[in-house]
Design goal:
single chain, about 400 residues, alpha/beta, about 45% helix, binds pyridoxal-5'-phosphate
Length: about 400
């Protein structure tokens, strides 16, 4: 009888054979050593989780509607939560939507997975940012999309470059299946796409017959400046799909997010979701709904924005204070979100520097992890939501010391 390890290669799908454990994740395990100040994660600050009020929310749900909350639910989601979201998105965002435009999902990550399944066959071309969120790269890679990278600068994705690509593929008679963007306080760079670029991106979608996936977990975490309309609200023709989540504005542990999409595609998304999990946790949806119903969400967002704004300020001040004033060293000034992005002189490689940073007891994520083509070697992502205020100052000092040494 053969060992299972001997027969597996003949049984695995081509897709699973192409999946690789990320070296970056292996490297990041080092960041869990004691004493390390980590700017590597993308986690909300747990000290802000509303645990006290959640005790009451949980007992209310179990007493009032335990039979429903603990049962299976509709794939589309809890209709009370959907109603709440419709009202919120209409009032605050000007999105012209109703109930049929919303699908509750198990986190925005599931939305990325479902959208990949619905639109992409292996080798289908899509446009993504250089850099882009790692989880999106994983979702697109797992379905073997052909990724075409477009630089993301301080104004957001370079839409002229997008146009060039759409033109080029159009001439070949090939369709770009979608354009993936994080317009507000992008993970990883912290930059926000300007209104002009959003307008042009939508125009390009209309002209070339493709759609845009707007991934928007950080939109509500704005520290300063005027909000720029979301693509999902600017678009009146159903070409923009918006992904949202409670992970960063409340907590990620319930894994609840939502997709706003045109009704014409909802059926497909629902059918793609059913074999995955039948429905997102009805219990988790009840919990989130009850929290929102009590009017607690907005005050909570206000509270976290205040804390994260202060942390961002501290990180910017520390960078200003400690980083050497050398040509090629630069960082973004995010107006919201959880991250900022540091560029080093071209000849420095943040991946090579990483073990030295760990020796100095500070960690970051190397920018190449966010580039599907492994470019962006001289960049790094720093998270400011999770570390404490003291850690931010000390960690940036350690990082700057390292940069001074290697320069
Ligand atoms: C851009 C982006 N999209 C999606 C996600 C996944 O969010 P969720 O926790 O809702 O699955 C994240 C999480 O960090 C993210 O940064």
């Amino acid at each position: 009888m053969k060992k299972i390890a001997d027969i597996l290669p003949g049984l695995l799908s081509e897709t699973s054979k192409s999946l690789r454990r990320s070296e970056i994740r292996e490297l990041l395990k080092l960041t869990r050593q004691p004493g390390i100040i980590s700017f590597a994660g993308g986690l909300p600050y747990p000290g802000l989780f509303p645990t006290e009020v959640m005790k009451d929310v949980l007992s209310t749900i179990l007493e009032r509607e335990g039979d429903l909350a603990l049962q299976y639910g509709p794939t589309e989601g809890d209709s009370r939560l959907i109603d709440f979201l419709v009202k919120w998105m209409r009032k605050d965002e000007g999105a012209e939507i109703d109930k049929e435009n919303i699908l509750i999902v198990s986190g925005a990550q599931q939305a990325l997975d479902l959208i990949s399944k619905v639109f992409i066959d292996p080798e289908d071309p899509i446009i993504i940012g250089l850099p882009s969120y790692i989880g999106a790269l994983q979702a697109f890679r797992s379905i073997r999309a052909k990724m075409i990278g477009v630089p993301v600068g301080k104004q957001g994705m370079d839409v002229d470059k997008v146009e060039e690509i759409l033109k080029k593929y159009g001439k070949k008679g090939e369709k770009i299946k979608f354009i993936y963007v994080v317009p507000d306080f992008q993970n990883p760079s912290g930059v926000t796409m300007t209104l002009e670029r959003r307008e042009k991106l939508l125009e390009l979608c209309y002209e070339y017959g493709t759609i845009v996936i707007e991934d928007s977990p950080y939109r509500e975490l704005r520290f300063e400046g005027e909000s720029i309309p979301m693509l999902g609200a600017m678009d009146k023709r159903g070409y923009a799909f918006s992904l949202h989540t409670f992970s960063k504005i409340l907590f990620p542990g319930t894994r609840i997010g939502w997709i706003i999409a045109n009704k014409a595609i909802m059926d497909k998304l629902v059918m793609a979701k059913q074999p995955t999990d039948l429905c997102s946790s009805p219990f988790a949806q009840s919990v989130i709904y009850e929290f929102c119903r009590r009017g607690l969400l907005k005050p909570h967002i206000k509270k976290i924005v205040k804390v994260y704004r202060k942390k961002r300020d501290l990180m910017l001040e520390a960078l200003e204070k400690y980083m050497p004033n050398e040509e090629g060293i630069d960082w973004t000034h995010p107006h919201g979100g959880l991250f900022l992005w540091v560029s080093l002189p071209e000849h420095l490689d943040a991946e090579e520097l990483f073990p030295k940073a760990v020796e100095k007891k500070v960690a970051y994520v190397m920018g190449s992890a966010f580039h599907f083509d492994r470019s962006g070697k001289n960049t790094m992502r720093l998270n400011f939501s999770f570390p404490s205020e003291e850690q931010i100052e000390e960690g940036i000092k350690r990082l700057a010391d390292l940069v001074v040494e290697v320069l």
